[in-house]
Amino acid sequence: MDYKVEVIKSRRKTISVEVRPDMRVIVRAPNRMPKKEILKFVSEKQDWIEKHLKKMQEQIKNQPDVEGFTAGEINDLADRALLYFPPRVKEYADKIGVTYGRITIRNQRTRWGSCSSDGNLNFNCLLMMLPEEIRDYVIVHELCHRKEMNHSPKFWKEVEKYCPEYKALKKRLKDEGEILMLKLEK
Questions:
Q1: CA distance between the termini of the chain
Q2: What does DSSP say about strands 5-10 and 121-124: parallel, antiparallel, or unpaired?
Q3: Which long-range contacts (CB under 8 A, 24 or more apart) does 36-44 make?
Q4: What pLDDT score was predicted for residue 66?
Q5: Average pLDDT, whole number, for the chain?
Q6: Do 184 and 109 meet the contact criterion of CB atoms below 8 Å apart?
Q7: Which segment of 14-18, 53-57, 93-97, 162-166 scores lowest on mean pLDDT?
Q8: What 8-state DSSP symbol labels residue 54?
Q9: How far apart are CA 35 and CA 7, in angstroms?
């Protein structure tokens, strides 16, 4: 199978590979990692990459023809999200015992939510098309970053305290969310 690999370097400590719903293969690597090591990693992961590209092709082929969102639909989702997220975030922040800054609603192509080091929270408006328990998982996930700004075992223990079924919800978000992200690409 022929594919192009996009490499993104950052201050991270580990290397990872991801196959996106738009069929892009993204490798995230530490800034100082030599190109030779990155190529070796990609070579070692070739079977995994090809398996996931094939799986993604099947999913796309089996999906009904997906039309993109209109600007009006995106605006409607953003308006609904602006009403939904602030009270839910406050409710969970009180339970978790954290503070937060500004809440922003976006229509991102790769993220469901984020938390800055200042405590500002971003949520993807497409979350409004997913079940409430998935939206709540994303809220808990981002608020737990106020205690742990990483994805360490300590962070996931914190998430589990407030969202015991987080593993299943994380998987559902990935599975159910992929098609929504594809609709943003159109």
A1: 24
A2: unpaired
A3: 38/7, 41/15, 41/17, 42/5, 42/17
A4: 56
A5: 89
A6: yes
A7: 53-57
A8: H
A9: 10
Residue 169's SS3 state is: helix
Scored b (16 or more CB within 10 A) or e, 124-148 reads bbbbbbbeeebbbbbbbbbbbbbee
Name the one residue in this structure whose structure tokens are 């599975």: 175
pTM: predicted TM-score of the whole model, two decimal places: 0.71
Amino acid identity, position 181: M
| Torsion angle of the four alpha carbons 55, 182, 2, 59, in this order, in degrees rounded to the nearest 10 | 20
Q: How far apart are CA 114 and CA 145, in angstroms?
A: 9
Place of tokens 């799986």: 55
Local confidence band at 107 (pLDDT 50, 70, 90 cut-offs) = confident
Q: Are 95 and 76 in contact (CB under 8 A)?
A: no
How confident is the model at residue 2, as a pLDDT? 73
